[in-house]
Structure formats: C-alpha cells, structure tokens
Amino acid sequence: MNFQLSEEQQMLVDMARQFAAQQVAPGAEHRDQTGTFPSDLIAPLAEQGFLGMLVPEADGGSDMGYVNYALALAEIAQACASTAVTMAVNNLTASAVATFASAELRAEVLPDLCSGAGGQVGAFALSEPHCGSDAAALRTKAERDGDDYIINGAKQWITNGSYASWVLVMARTGEGTRGISAFLVPGDAAGLIVGPEERKMGLKGSNTVPLTLENVRVNQRYRVGDEGIGFRIAMDALDGGRIGIGSQALGIGRAALVEAARYMEERKAFGQPLNRHQALQFMIADIGTDLEATRLLMLKAASLRDQGEPMTQAASMCKVYASEACCRAVDSALQIHGGYGYVQDYAIERLYRDARVTRIYEGTSEIQRVVISRNVLKGS
Ligand SMILES: Cc1cc2nc3c(=O)[nH]c(=O)nc-3n(C[C@H](O)[C@H](O)[C@H](O)COP(=O)(O)OP(=O)(O)OC[C@H]3O[C@@H](n4cnc5c(N)ncnc54)[C@H](O)[C@@H]3O)c2cc1C
C-alpha cells in the first residue's frame, strides 16, 4: 500500500496551492467582511481547469477526476471557504450534467459551466423551504405542455443562485421518488425569480438565495436523463458532492491549524511561548490527527469514485468525519487564541464561522449517520 501522491498529483497540489496563495487568499477577508461574491475569480478558476474537473475533455472539461478535484479544492478552501463552495457547487452541477444529460444538452451547457462564461457558474436546486434532509418530499412541479414543461415551485438555500448560467432543478413529474425529474433551467429564464441573499453566519462571500419558479417554460430537451430519474441524479451528485465538502472542511481545518501554530509562536504566557505549554500542544496533536484522518477518508472516497466503485458509505464517512473534525479544529484553534480569537482581528474568527455549515449542507451529520448505519448494519 502506497500513501504517497503521484508526481502528477503533487504537481497539481503545488499549482493549486500557489494559485490559492496568490489569487484567492488575498481577498478572503474582504469577501467575508463585505459579502462580496468572488466574481473576479471565476475566469482564473476556469483557466486553471478548476470549474470542469469532473467533466470529460470532449465536453469542455479538464477531466482530472475526483482525487485531483478533492486535492485542489482543499487548497482553495484553505485560502477562502466561500470561493471553495462556489467552485464545488459548479463542479457538482457540471458533473451531474456530464454523467446524465444527452450529448446535445452536454454540448449546449457544459462549455458554459466549465469556462465560467460571463462570470457565471452552475447551481443545484434540490432543497425547498419545507424540506432539506427529506429531499424526496419536494413539491416543485414540472407539468408537460406539448414539447415543453412548465415548472412551478420554490427552492431554498441555492448556492450560486444569483450568478447561475444554469440551474439544475429537481421537480416533480409524478408520485414518490420515481416521480422526480431533473431540468436545466437557464439562469435568465422568464419566471425564474431570485430572492434576497441569506444573511449567513459565515461563507459570506458565497451566494445563497431562494429561487421561485413561476411558470418557467423549458423545452423537453432541457430534461436531464429520462423522466423519473431526477432523485437518482440528485443522490449521485450528492455522493460526489460530499467528497467536495469533505475537502472544503479539510482546507478550513488546515487554515485553522496554521493560524493556531502562528499564534502559539508569537504569544507568551507565564514567561513562555504558548507552544511550550503541553495542554496546547495536545490540542495541536488532536487537530493534526483529525486532519490526517480526514485526508485519508477523503482520498479513499475520491479514489473509489474515480474507479467507478460503490462509494455512498465512503462519501458519507468522509463528509461527517471531515466536517466534525473541522469544527473541532476551528474550536481548538480559537481557544488557543484566547480573547483575540473572539474578535475579527484574527482570521480564526472567520474560519470558525465558515466551518459550521459543513455539518449542515449536502446532508447534515445526522443524515450521513443514517446512511452509514444503514450500510454498516447491512455488513458492507
Ligand atoms: C449555506 C447553505 C448553502 C446550501 N446550498 C444548497 C444548494 O446549493 N442546493 C440545495 O439544494 N440545498 C442547499 N442547502 C440546503 C442544505 O442541503 C439543507 O439545509 C440541509 O440538507 C438540511 O436541510 P434543512 O435545512 O431543511 O433541515 P431539516 O431537514 O429540516 O433538518 C432539521 C434537523 O433535523 C435533523 N433530521 C432531519 N431528518 C432526520 C432524521 N431522519 N434523523 C435524524 N435527524 C434528522 C437534521 O439533521 C437537522 O439537524 C444549503 C444550505 C445552506 C445553509
């Protein structure tokens, strides 16, 4: 068994780290303080191939696979968690289209999503005001009208919603989970109404909005895959997406470790730098162990996905462990900062706020445990 990255993977990590340090990190605090969406980074991310990492080259992507995607995304997240989730949701949307859409639809949509055309990105609209965890309870309806569908409903918490070239919308075309279909709705479609930005605790540079669909008319060619497979598309997309949230959490956790280590060196208590106090050294040991376990779970899930192996359980283990480890890491790192951790003068305050949502979106920790326990009890 070899735990080393290949030469190519290490080159990608180095490239992503340099890009993140030079282009993403410098604006992170400003994006957080002002709630500014990283519009200026969409074209540079596309130039690196980071918007279409899970899309075949023939469809306009960079086709780097999940392991490389997870490694690169962690570097972006370490620099700015808001930029990372913007990138992650674009990749999730693009990969679902690449996997399930017709050749004609792929040719129309994927070049936009992979190139960040017009500074816009993709969005994935599953959650509704009345349901998130129980996504199959969604009520948005798509009714057939000749060659078109007319879509009506409300979507909630849609990342990238105000800046979307395309929104992948899950809507009901029948009863039950087999009565859900997926549609690509152009961001400028008549009747697609973008609501006000959510006033979030963290990830303030990312865009989260409710979307209302009022008689949105889309031609049937914008249906992704057959009628009735929308729930399967959504669950498959989330399996991949959970690797992305795992790597986002890894990036935030690493940033917290860097901040803690830096602070421990400069601050003294009882005549000694903080890093000489064993109680704090032990906190660092725990963060380091948590982050390494996260990295291994992330790489395992990503590698299974790249090999086309079943990975639902691995994705859930990665997501729940990574997000909870990340929250432990930011909490300890903030504690190490003492009172200074509680004010905005130090980056750890932002990291603490950014971390929290990783336990909620793309399936809460409780939902991951539902998935894991179901699989563990089956003996898989
Ligand atoms: C910043 C942000 C961005 C988001 N981006 C997107 C997006 O781009 N697209 C999208 O579709 N959605 C998005 N979401 C929605 C997100 O996926 C949901 O918030 C999440 O799935 C939880 O759903 P809920 O908020 O409706 O909580 P609920 O489902 O109402 O859950 C409430 C609580 O009950 C628990 N719970 C529910 N069912 C069970 C159960 N069976 N067993 C044990 N506990 C349970 C949950 O874990 C949670 O603690 C985003 C959310 C946020 C906050």
Outline the fold blueprint.
Elements (H helix, E strand, L loop, with lengths): L6 H18 L3 H7 L4 H9 L17 H15 L1 H20 L2 H13 L5 E5 L15 E5 L2 E12 L4 E9 L7 E7 L5 E3 L13 E12 L3 E2 L5 H37 L1 E2 L2 E2 L4 H29 L5 H25 L10 H10 L8 H14 L2
Parallel strand pairs: 1-4
Antiparallel strand pairs: 2-3, 3-7, 4-5, 5-8, 6-7, 9-10
Helix pairs in contact: 1-4, 4-5, 4-7, 4-8, 5-6, 5-7, 7-8, 7-9, 7-10, 8-9, 9-10, 9-11
Bound molecules: flavin-adenine dinucleotide.
Outline of this structure?
It contains 11 helices and 10 strands. The protein is α+β, with helices and mostly antiparallel strands and 380 residues long.
Describe the model:
This protein has 380 residues and is an alpha+beta fold. The protein folds into three domains: 114 residues, Butyryl-Coa Dehydrogenase, subunit A, domain 1 (Orthogonal Bundle); 105 residues, Butyryl-CoA Dehydrogenase, subunit A, domain 2 (Beta Barrel), CATH 2.40.110; 148 residues, Butyryl-CoA Dehydrogenase, subunit A, domain 3 (Up-down Bundle). The protein contains eleven helices and ten strands. Helix 4 packs antiparallel against helix 8 and helix 8 runs antiparallel to helix 9. The longest helix has 37 residues. It is globular, with a radius of gyration of 21 Å. The model has no long low-confidence stretch (mean pLDDT 98). Flavin-adenine dinucleotide binds next to strand 1, strand 3 and helix 11.
